[in-house]
Write a structure and sequence with these properties.
It is a single chain. By secondary structure, this protein is α/β, with parallel strands linked by helices. It is built from eleven helices and 18 strands. The strands form four sheets. Strands 6-9-7-8-10 form a five-stranded mixed beta barrel, surrounded by four helices. Strands 12-13-15-17-18 form a five-stranded mixed sheet, with helices on one face. It has a two-stranded antiparallel sheet with strand order 5-11. Strand 2, helix 2 and strand 3 form a beta-alpha-beta unit. The longest helix is centred in the N-terminal third of the chain and has 16 residues.
Amino acid sequence: MSTEKVTSQNSPLDRFIAVIPAGGVGTRLWPLSRAAAPKFLHDLTGSGSTLLRATYDRLEPLAGKRVLVVTGTAHRAAVCRQLPEVQAADLVLESEPKDSGAAIGLAAAILYERDPDTIMGSFAADQVISPDSLFQDAVREAIYTAAAGKIVTIGIKPTHPSTGFGYIRSGAALNISGAPSAQAVVEFVEKPSEDVAQQYVDSGEYVWNAGMFVAPVSLMLKHLEANQPELFAGLQEIAKAWDTPLQDEVTARVWPTLPKIAIDYAVAEPAAAAGDVAVVPGTFRWDDVGDFASVGRLNSAKEVDDVTVIGEGARVFTENASGVVVSDTKRVIALIGIKDVVIVDTPDALLVTTKEHSQRVKQAVDALKAKGDTDVL
């Protein structure tokens, strides 16, 4: 069933359509994650499901087949293989990445043209969440809150003072039927220093910003028009042509001209300043799989001694060693007397680092790009 054919409006849940932005390369997971095969197309948890497939399965009890996927043209075939349920009309292809403002904004504009009463929920394809039931409970509360006229973000209760995430400061309870934990958002704050992050955690007023948004498409577009009129105008032009014979021509002409901006800056932060944003705290486990240290922490794949091994048919020998090995080859890898190592072995590139320095892999990717070694990126 295409998202066009939703007609039941008996409950806010019936108005809900899930949007999955599947973009980004995941440069900190190089050389496993690459431009042609980004991290959302991989099984990084040893569960048997790729991150993209797991995202879809997590949303299906809420949205059924009412799912829109936004991804790059280069990933169309892989996404269709992994999500055969998604119809062509519900696959939004980007000829070039334009950041989340354009991706989520276009989804909102298309859904508005199909049904202006739609409540959309945007959930990135590259996050690891468990258990699904607690996630679904939070999304249901977010849908009821959105139906009351709010842009809703699902914040993650922090488990430690992370300096790698943005934070959301929550305020008064909103007392919305069906959403007992919904609160007003006071402000979004950028990634803090460790001392400030500790203050945030101690206060109990802050949650991590996981980039999940649930909102009436009309309200999302209202704030986009007010704060990014150029982006809004371009997206409107594309959306008006969507589902018509002019779709491809208009998209090819307009998309490259759109400004790049994150949805947080384009919509969420100015909407929060206007009092239109709410937060539902999520108590589920969440990770954005930002580096190989997190892959090792999350993985349910087999362990050899204290080494997490990922890869079908990986051949790893260890003695007095710990860390993470990701193997995409049949090469034997022997680790002896080495601690917290990260080894990623692919046919044309080998990464050797430590968990402590795994965030710095992006610098290696940037250096390779500068040297012109794009064949391995």
